[in-house]
Design a protein that fits this description.
There is one protein chain. Helix content is 33%, strand content 18%. By secondary structure, the protein is an alpha+beta fold.
């Protein structure tokens, strides 16, 4: 089974999808990781501001931060190997690592209700 760990820089909340201006990239990543979890993929995401112990406990992340500093975040570890640093993975990369189709990481588009206002 694929194990994906995402180590985020310090953000205001777990996913960074909060506040008055939401970064669409953070929304995309949060959605893709949620969809992977729904497929029973072992996915965990850690925020440096809220879960610093996770960064201490993972020696690969410790080493990465010692060598490159916080600019290396976000960082992604897949099956015990650092596969991406300094930027979030694309949906294509996530799909490849998790052995799912890329289109499975797209949010379902809900059709608008046909409301007739009188």
């Amino acid at each position: 089974m694929t194990v994906i760990r995402v180590y985020d820089p310090a953000m205001c909340c777990e996913t960074g999808v909060c506040g008055p201006v939401v970064d669409p990239e953070l929304t995309r990543v949060a959605n893709a990781l949620f969809l992977l979890e729904q497929k029973s993929i072992d996915v965990k995401r850690y925020n440096l501001g809220n879960e610093p112990q996770a960064f201490v406990d993972e020696t690969l992340i410790q080493k990465l931060l010692e060598e490159k500093g916080v600019d290396a975040l976000p960082a992604v570890i897949v099956n015990g190997t650092v596969v991406k640093t300094g930027e979030y993975p694309t949906n294509k990369e996530l799909a490849e690592w998790a052995a799912v189709r890329e289109d499975e990481l797209q949010p379902e588009k809900k059709e608008k209700d046909d409301l007739t206002l009188f």
